[in-house]
Write a structure and sequence with these properties.
CATH topology: Four Helix Bundle (Hemerythrin (Met), subunit A)
Number of strands: 0
Order of helices and strands: HHHHH
Oligomer: single chain
Strand content: under 5%
Radius of gyration: 16 Å
Largest sheet: none
CATH class: Mainly Alpha
CATH architecture: Up-down Bundle
């Protein structure tokens, strides 16, 4: 499996989890919302950790640059983490309007972020990382946990 396939599948899985939490909130089922939201947030944070601890450093070492795409992705990760915190507060207070409003912002941010990674960064990683480094990086990413 190449890096872009693995990471893109993680995006799709997180998108599905996010939608499940949003649907539960729209129904007003806060127990289900909390359960689905925790799955989404944990999987998203693990995905970011995989990128920040393994993929980005491998890419930066290979290209000799920590500026550019990885810097932008790290910044966007911080934005998503902030929204996860606000969503968690809305779940805790069972504030349906706030939760659903924040979901709109999160969806837009994640769609734009994921598109940049999938169309640019991941394909660059697949191109510039030598096969053995790609395999090693993918194996390390698969072992990362929260």
């Amino acid at each position: 499996m190449i890096i872009s396939q693995f990471m893109t599948q993680e995006h799709r899985d997180c998108d599905t989890e996010f939608a499940a939490a949003e649907q539960a909130a729209a129904k007003g089922d806060w127990a289900e919302t909390e359960e689905k939201f925790l799955i989404f947030s944990n999987d998203t944070l693990r995905h970011f950790k995989r990128e920040e601890e393994e993929l980005f450093p491998a890419f930066e070492t290979q290209t000799g640059s920590s500026e550019g795409p990885t810097q932008v992705m790290r910044y966007e990760h911080e934005q998503v983490k902030g929204l996860i915190g606000k969503l968690a507060e809305a779940v805790e207070s069972q504030d349906k309007d706030a939760y659903l409003s924040l979901c709109e912002s999160m969806m837009i941010l994640l769609q734009q972020h994921n598109m940049k990674e999938e169309q640019m960064l991941y394909s660059m990683c697949d191109r510039v990382l030598p096969p053995e480094l790609k395999t090693d990086t993918l194996e390390k990413m698969q072992k990362v946990e929260l």
